Amino acid sequence: MKLWRFNGGLPSLAEHKNESTHLPIEIAPVPNHLVYPLRQHIGNAATALVKVGDYVLRGQKIADAQGLISAPIHAASSGTVSQIADHLIPHPSGFSAPSISIKTDGLDKELAPSSQPDFRQLSAADLVSLIREAGIVGLGGAAFPTAIKLDNQSKSRRIDTLILNGAECEPYISCDDRLLKERADKVIEGVNVLLHLLGAKRAILAIEDNVPSTFKAIQTAVDKNNNPVINAVQIPTIYPTGGEKQLVQTLTGKEVPSGGIPADIGIVSINVGTVYAVQQAVIEGKPLTSRIITVTGEGVTTPRNLEVRIGTPISTLIDVCNGYTQYAERLIMGGPMMGFALMNDEIPVVKASNCILVASKHEAVTEKQAMPCIRCGLCASACPVSLLPQQLYWFSRSEQLEKAEKINLLDCIECGCCDVVCPSHIPLVQHFRYAKSALKVQHHEKHLSNIARERFEAREDRLTKEKAERAEKSRIKKAALKEKSAKETIDAAINRAKAKKQNPTEGEG
Amino acid sequence: MHFLTSNAPFIAPQNSVQRMMFWVLIALLPGVITMIWQFGYGVLFNIIICLTTALTAEALMLRLRGRPILPFMSDLSAVVTALLLALALPTLAPWWIPFIGALIAIVIAKHLYGGLGYNPFNPAMVAFAVLMVSFPKSMTVWMLPHALQVDSVTFSDLISIIFQQQANPELIDAITAATPLDTMKTQLGLNQTIDEIRSASLFGSIAGTGWQWVSIAFLLGGCLLLAKKIISWHIPAGLLAGLFVISFIAYMSEPGLSPSPTFHLLSGGAMLGAFFIATDPVTAATTTKGRFIYGALIGVLTYIIRTWGGYPEGIAFAVILINMTVPLIDHYTQPRVYGHK
Prior knowledge:
The structure holds 2 protein chains of 2 kinds.
Chain A: E1 25-27, E2 33-37, E3 47-48, E4 55-56, E5 61-64, E6 73-74, E7 79-88, E8 96-104, H1 124-133, H2 146-150, E9 161-166, H3 175-182, H4 184-198, E10 202-208, H5 212-225, E11 230-235, H6 244-252, E12 267-271, H7 272-282, E13 290-296, E14 304-309, H8 314-320, E15 330-333, E16 340-342, E17 355-359, H9 378-382, H10 389-397, H11 401-406, H12 417-421, H13 428-502
Parallel strand pairs in A: 1-14, 9-10, 9-12, 10-11, 13-17
Antiparallel strand pairs in A: 2-8, 3-5, 4-7, 5-6, 7-8, 13-14, 15-16, 15-17
Helix pairs in contact in A: 3-5, 4-5, 4-7, 10-13
Chain B: H1 17-39, H2 42-64, H3 69-73, H4 77-88, H5 96-110, H6 123-134, E1 142-143, H7 155-164, H8 169-175, E2 176-177, H9 180-189, H10 194-198, H11 211-227, H12 234-253, H13 261-266, H14 270-277, H15 288-308, H16 315-323, H17 326-332
């Protein structure tokens, strides 16, 4: 298959896969308690369906989707709801947010999996709602509700290509790799479900060429499945080739339009872990309650690939891996390029967590001394979307947000390539994140002030109109009153006169 | 357990300004050694005076500007500026030429414009241009290349020429000569043909006795920079291509009156300029396409200055003039961003 090359990237980034890629998936034990942030996906937070004291089973829905872009949440083990309150969530800023906590009883009683008819008998709409009910979101890290991605009704054009993203380009992470190695058949089954659902003409499963044994496993599964439209492809190992836009370009040569989605060019791209979750939901009737997570880094005694119940506190996973080593310096969720550092290990893993990296001092830099930009342009050569980070930096730093937007700040995917190659050690991505959020705030404020202005103008209009109406009304009223009182006086006078005539003596008596 | 937080990416930087400057210095070594071999220890004096002055000036300016001295000094950028200036200066220039030059480069062209990263003009070339315009006579005393030296010059002769300027004028006449570019310009002005001019021993087998080897040494150093990915190929390729194409056209149309492209590429500062001076990232264009254009414009302008301008060598003026066009070039050569039409 012909492949294309995206701009830049980091072809020689140290992969650090050897630490964990040979470790088979182990099932992590049931923790003492499970914590479910109500928002662990892009979109609206879910609403709790349980209250404190309720007994729940594994697989039971404990929170429901709210609105279209949202996802329900299911309990991962049996136990009692102990608390519905704010809890620390995995977030770069160390926020707390409403979460459901469950005290597990260790019995791990499960809701009987719902029996499913053959998926080929189901309509696309049925499958979409099944996937939505199973709480499936993008497990590659973005956590966008998968049902929306798959729903044809929201699409401008037909999907012809389904891309299965097995390119795990972030260093250290090997959860997708292990999944593909050990459960290739189930993943391919999931691919068949998605092909049926989307009516796509072909499916491409992309794997980086640094894991040939995984490719072999997948190739065997594909051959066994005997569906000619499914293709497994090895692609060059260049960070960030697993980025959706970069993968689309690598495999098809097409570019996702700026501000658009792959569906705009007839493509749906889905992480292989998500495909497995779809298989579990559609074929085996199990909602999403667990996922595979790589626990690695020099800060943890025994690195492992674990199948973890979503909601498990990180501390439990560290215990499973025999605790921290003396080198533990940073607790990172995700990879070292795009992950974020956590404050403590009481934070639970969520649907989007693919890796817990306990980094040592030299695995994660603690402080960089930024020097002035020397305009060397290495950042631009490394940028996988062909931006000019050095000029973006200039505008972001001087708060010239409109100018930064004009040279496409919002197309930045925050992959960190520019940051890593910068000889002046400038934290470029941090500047861009800040500028992006400032721009968002600015847009929002502009939007709000527009609304406020419209509202004010409408109010002014209404008030003037009301005033005019009131004036008009009171004028009419006054006129009527005047007329009425005049008429009444005359009538009264006439009446009096009439009475006098009829009964002339009365008045004098 | 509590952990410190910071922002991604967490991977340690793979590069530093210091590393880039270090490799530039290493890549200059073949050229430096060849120059010393061809033109004697005068080169070393230039280097020493430039380095001492530049580093002292850098430290003083950093202090005055309230910047941390050690991190900025250790980026080696002042060392590179000093060395480039030293290599551009004539080998028997009086001591105050490198001294004033280094001061102009560091104090005026670099720090008064905001220091590393903010100067719009190449500091070494600004200094060179100021010296060239202000002290034209002292800027022409190049020692004869090694192969053409008849009288041997003792070390004390050298000291007295550079520091006391009391040397016997006959000696100076005997050991100095105009550069091949200078001679070519003067002789062409006297209506000599290329063949007549080139028959002089000064011109050597390729493009100028001694000079050609210096150029080739700088070319080799440039290749090292390309191999180490310290510079990209766009600027040197653009510059050399620009100079080659325009000199080739002239050479083909008037072979008797125009020196060959080889002469233009190897007899003067073209190689040093293409790989070490025009590639100064701070003052060059930043986009890939822009860099080629930037290089090509310098190449063409160098030819124009050499051929029709008032000075025999045009690299310094061409670099400074094209530095001015950088914002414009950058503006019109922005790459198409992913997903945009």
